[in-house]
């Protein structure tokens, strides 16, 4: 065992190995040396002992081995886990424990279940990591063999577990790449011809329905086994997955095995839902498609050109969860100081329970590959989570001070991270907060459940969401809050900064989304220094930053948002938003909007730059009107009547194709807008960006925005930082700040708490 002693120097704050003590004079050095020797021997004076207990796991290992060397490794992670428990049984850990995993694929049929018995401590954590330079895959999938030619270019194999009703899957991978189920239509979507529900109100969308009328020729009532098929319906902001029960060719009516949670409409103005049908053998007509039959257990696949199924690695997902942190916060039992580093995890499976159509917003009903409850001070770092039929990571009750840093998440059926905290008023030990999600890449998510969110924070506080790259998802990039309206909320003091979010809603499947989306009261929450661009949507929405129902006391500053289908910034209804020093540019249909009036101040919109070349400046027209209301700041004085519901000033507006006289502020001219008390100090002038057509929004030195007080926005550090993506980088309290409530509350001082 090697012990290295470090001394922390006051000048650098870094630990350096020392062979001697440097003193101001030799006399001081001679006098202090005997005492130092004694203190070092006792392990005090701020020294850090770097001792390590090592265990090894290898595919060719044996769980009967001692496991302490590469020559005699364990074969499974569960055996290494038991070795750590055995070590702890001899007394408190006095050295860090590392389980080194040799390269290879490890089949996970049951999740690695971690409890408080597996915990490390602050000085002696337990770490599961790949051997340096080696690639480790924890796989929940099963390789599919036994392929035979069926007819034409279609091949088939039989899976007895599917036939017996023990296995079902919605994803298939060939040579590591995602393959899609056979579908109709091959491109685009069908649209519902008529609904069969009885509701008459277009706004009553939460009405179950189990059938609809399809357009003539879209579906074929002669399909031999329609019961294998599944309709995926895209409506509003959710997707429903419904097993087909029957198709009536006389009535052109399709009926499902259970109801959708919403009517088959897609908006509040009579628009009807869009849908596709998957997993029908007769529609298997494109290379790279497949079909799985429940009754026969047959799996059909049409290979891509060059694919040889006699040698191809075909994998179907089977295990739902790979790792579970399972503490019991109600009883004060927590899983602590366990780290996973430099590992790959993939090929998880998830099946919606019978009757669950995935109607939950944000695909909140879908499970996760890594699931945590009662976890504290644990981490997932520099890992790759890919080809998942689930979310990647989910935190439930009692999860605090966990870190997720430098990970690569890609090809996800659902979303990346989901923090599901407890609602206000519950037991304090159930609180989930102070977690860090930083420097991760989340790419191509929502592949099966398009309503999934890249990072979803529900009823959780004091989290840091920073330096992430999130792209190519069909719904929101980052969503925080999740208490509708002005009711009490646990989502407070969250920090969302330096994230790069782009290509959201890229398939135009859903509506009502944003690059960054806040919901409900969020006092102390800050959204700052983020880069958001290329946000799309179907019927409506596709906003850059979206303050939805009841978003309150949120600071939105120093963000750059451009190339959105609808507004770069949107307010549904909110209270006391501070929106300052942002660049909102290049909205295609509009620049910013407010969709509901209320008798309080919605937002302080000050010191921003709005630049556009097409679309409207402001919508909805009538909803920018001020409403008189009374407020009271002194209990001994009568209420004061006011009509300031939207404060806007010190902004720069500019469209190179319009004169100032052509401006339209929600149905008002510039003069009329100012006469109502808005933008009295604002300018209509070219902000002088370096190259706005190529999205370079840096300001030139002579920009009038600088004279108006606009602070340049530095985007050089947005997205993952290189030092956290390598094996040497670690996400910890020293290198990645943990947010404290005071920090954000000071930044948002003056807002209602």
- Strand tally is 65
CATH topology of the largest domain: Pectate Lyase C-like
User: Judging by the overall fold, what is the CATH architecture of the largest domain?
Assistant: 3 Solenoid
Strand share of the residues?
A: 35-45%
* Tally of helical runs: 6
Radius of gyration: 29 Å
Question: Average pLDDT across residues?
Answer: 88
User: What is the first-to-last residue Cα distance?
Assistant: 54 Å
Number of domains in the coordinates?
Answer: 5
What would your notes on this structure say?
The chain has 5 domains: 6-42, no CATH class; 52-136, no CATH class; 141-182 and 284-316, Golgi alpha-mannosidase II (Immunoglobulin-like, Sandwich); 190-282; 317-351 and 362-724, Pectate Lyase C-like (3 Solenoid), CATH 2.160.20. 7% of the residues lie in helices and 36% in strands. It contains 6 helices and 65 strands. The strands form 9 sheets. It has a 15-stranded parallel beta sheet that branches. Strands 5-8-28-32-35-38-41-44-47-50-54-57-62-63 form a 14-stranded parallel beta sheet, with no helix packed on it. The chain is globular, with a radius of gyration of 29 Å. The two termini are 54 Å apart. Mean pLDDT is 88; it is low at 1-47 and 733-753.
């Amino acid at each position: 065992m090697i012990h290295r002693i470090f001394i922390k120097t006051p000048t650098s704050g870094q630990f350096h190995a020392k062979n001697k003590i440097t003193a101001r004079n030799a006399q001081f050095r001679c006098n202090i040396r005997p005492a130092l020797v004694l203190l070092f021997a006792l392990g005090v004076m701020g020294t850090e002992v770097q001792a390590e207990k090592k265990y090894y796991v290898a595919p060719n290992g044996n769980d009967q081995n001692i496991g302490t060397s590469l020559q005699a490794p364990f074969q499974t992670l569960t055996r290494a886990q038991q070795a750590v428990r055995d070590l702890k049984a001899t007394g408190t850990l006095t050295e860090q424990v590392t389980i080194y995993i040799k390269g290879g694929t490890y089949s996970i049929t049951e999740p690695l279940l971690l409890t408080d018995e597996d915990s490390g401590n602050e000085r002696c954590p337990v770490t599961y990591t790949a051997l340096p330079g080696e690639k480790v895959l924890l796989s929940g999938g099963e390789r599919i063999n036994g392929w035979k030619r069926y007819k034409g270019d279609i091949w088939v194999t039989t899976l007895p577990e599917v036939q017996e009703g023990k296995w079902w899957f919605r994803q298939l991978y060939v040579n590591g790449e995602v393959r899609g189920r056979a579908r109709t239509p091959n491109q685009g979507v069908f649209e519902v011809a008529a609904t069969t529900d009885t509701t008459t109100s277009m706004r009553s969308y939460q009405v179950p329905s189990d059938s609809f009328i399809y357009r003539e020729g879209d579906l074929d009532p002669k399909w031999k086994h329609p019961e294998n098929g599944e309709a995926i319906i895209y409506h509003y902001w959710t997707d429903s997955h419904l097993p087909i029960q029957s198709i009536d060719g006389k009535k052109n009516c399709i009926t499902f095995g259970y109801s959708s949670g919403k009517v088959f409409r897609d908006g509040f103005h009579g628009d009807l839902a869009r849908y596709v049908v998957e997993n029908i053998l007769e529609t298997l007509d494109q290379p790279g498609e497949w079909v799985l039959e429940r009754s026969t257990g047959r799996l059909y696949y049409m290979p891509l050109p060059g694919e040889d199924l006699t040698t191809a690695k075909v994998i179907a997902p089977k295990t739902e969860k790979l790792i579970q942190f399972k503490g019991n916060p109600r009883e004060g039992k927590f899983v602590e100081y366990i780290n996973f580093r430099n590992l790959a995890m993939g090929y998880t499976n998830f099946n919606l329970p019978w009757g669950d159509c995935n109607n939950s917003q944000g695909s909140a009903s879908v499970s996760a590959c890594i699931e945590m409850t009662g976890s504290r001070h644990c981490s997932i770092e520099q890992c790759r989570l890919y080809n998942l039929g689930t979310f990647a990571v989910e935190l439930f009750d009692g999860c605090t001070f966990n870190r997720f840093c430098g990970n690569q998440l890609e090809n996800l059926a659902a979303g990346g991270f989901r923090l599901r905290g407890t609602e206000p008023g519950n037991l304090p030990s159930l609180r989930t907060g102070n977690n860090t999600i930083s420097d991760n890449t989340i790419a191509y998510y929502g592949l099966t459940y398009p309503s999934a969110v890249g990072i979803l924070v529900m009823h959780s506080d004091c989290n840091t969401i920073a330096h992430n790259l999130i792209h190519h998802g069909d719904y929101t990039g980052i969503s925080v809050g999740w208490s509708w309206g002005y009711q009490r909320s646990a989502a407070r003091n969250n920090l969302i900064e330096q994230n790069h979010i782009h290509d959201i809603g890229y398939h135009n499947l859903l509506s009502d989304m944003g690059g960054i989306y806040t919901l409900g009261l969020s006092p102390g929450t800050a959204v700052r220094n983020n880069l958001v661009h290329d946000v799309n949507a179907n019927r409506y929405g596709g906003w850059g930053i979206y303050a939805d129902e009841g978003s309150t006391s949120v600071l939105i500053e120093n963000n750059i948002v451009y190339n959105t289908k609808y507004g770069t910034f949107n307010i549904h209804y909110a209270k006391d938003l501070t929106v300052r020093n942002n660049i909102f540019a290049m909205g295609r249909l509009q620049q910013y909007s407010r969709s509901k009036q209320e008798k309080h101040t919605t937002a302080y919109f000050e010191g921003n730059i709005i630049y556009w070349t097409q679309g409207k400046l402001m919508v909805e027209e009538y909803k920018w009107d001020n409403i008189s209301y009374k407020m009271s700041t002194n209990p001994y004085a009568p209420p004061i009547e006011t009509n300031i519901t939207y404060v806007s000033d010190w902004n720069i507006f500019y469209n190179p194709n319009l004169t100032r006289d052509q401006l339209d502020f929600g149905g008002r001219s510039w003069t009329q807008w100012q006469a109502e008390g808005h933008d009295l100090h604002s300018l209509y002038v070219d902000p002088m960006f370096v190259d706005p057509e190529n999205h370079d929004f840096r300001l030139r030195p002579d920009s009038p925005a600088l004279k108006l007080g606009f602070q340049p926005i530095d985007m050089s550090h947005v997205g993952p930082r290189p030092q956290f993506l390598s094996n040497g980088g670690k996400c910890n309290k020293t290198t990645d700040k943990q947010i404290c409530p005071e920090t954000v509350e000071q930044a948002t001082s003056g807002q209602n708490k």
